[in-house]
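Below is just one:
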Amino acid sequence: MTKTEKPLDFLWFIPTSGDGSYLGSDDRSRPADPGYFREIATAVDRLGYTGVLIPTGAACEESFVLAGHLAAVTEKLKFLVAIRPGTASPAYYARLAATLDRVSNGRLLLNIVVGGSVQELAGDGIFLPHDERYAHAEEFFRVFNSLIETGKANLDGKYIKALNAQLGFPPVQEPRPPLYFGGSSDAAIDFAGGRVDKYLTWGEPPAQVAEKIASVRKAAAAKGKEVSFGIRLHFIVRETDEEAWAAADRLISKLSDEAIAAAQEVFAKNSDSVGQARMVALHNGRRDRLEVSPNLWAGIGLVRSGAGTALVGSPKTVAARLREYQALGIDTIVASGYPHLEEAYTVSELLFPEIGLGSPRNQIRSSFGERQVFGGGGHGGNVRLVSGS
């Protein structure tokens, strides 16, 4: 990073449906455990990550409730939580959002998730066709934004009706917490251009990301708005490129062809998400074509829905790839790695210095200024080195 570049806003991920060391295996897997989520949240808060994404879905813990829990045990960490239009009224979501922003002292970020799983949407009582879901979301946020920004809203819409709706308490952030959103269809991009503050893309090759950014900018400009951009990526960072690629191979070393086929069948059957289709098209379920762009590896998407790509390499290599995305306009990274607690430390220790991010917050001095090297934690303490050695 040059001295004139602004450091990336770097968020981490809370794996609320569970975690593990191997995809497609129960070996060394970790269940969805609130205690484990606290460990991750407090670690990344100290390590210097600016926030965490808490996912949403039938297989995940409820994001607003968990964010409220984690806000109580962290200091500066922000929480990117999901609003899913149709699962509750805009007035109810406005009360949730305002309260969470107040109890966290302004640490709320809002992630608009319109939904791409037809099966899951049906379970939530939502039966609108793909593009119509965005028309519904547009009305939803007309009411939501009015309530959380002014305390009042009225709308007699096709999908949403609100008569003299009121919000008792404003959020800490003015005029409201920022709205994040990701979607790849034409309807999604048009919605993003008019409603969101930050557009998130999944980790596609830079040329494809550039096309999406251009489309969103055009849609925003047509509505007199500006949008900033982020990218959702996994990270496999090791001291050398060779070690990183070995770790990527190890992550899917226990993944069977049957598990891959079953996952891909579910994606095809249950999802009408254009973004998910773009993720699948990067690899088409094949193990022999996983490096889809230099150091961009699609192995995770063989079985994981949504974000399916990782940047793989040494700190210098991964930093160079991130600078390519920065040059396109990306200013925010929403990151993850398996398992999430250990990889949060690895990314912080190896990658952060290369991209200009600082040391852990509130770090206590470990010496009176002498250079020290770790001596194994014995009774004699660390090895003190003579200055200049």
Observations:
- Residues 130-150 form the longest helix (21 residues).
- The chain is about 40% helix and 20% strand.
- The chain has a mean pLDDT of 93.
- Residues 9-385 form a domain with the TIM Barrel fold (CATH 3.20.20.30).
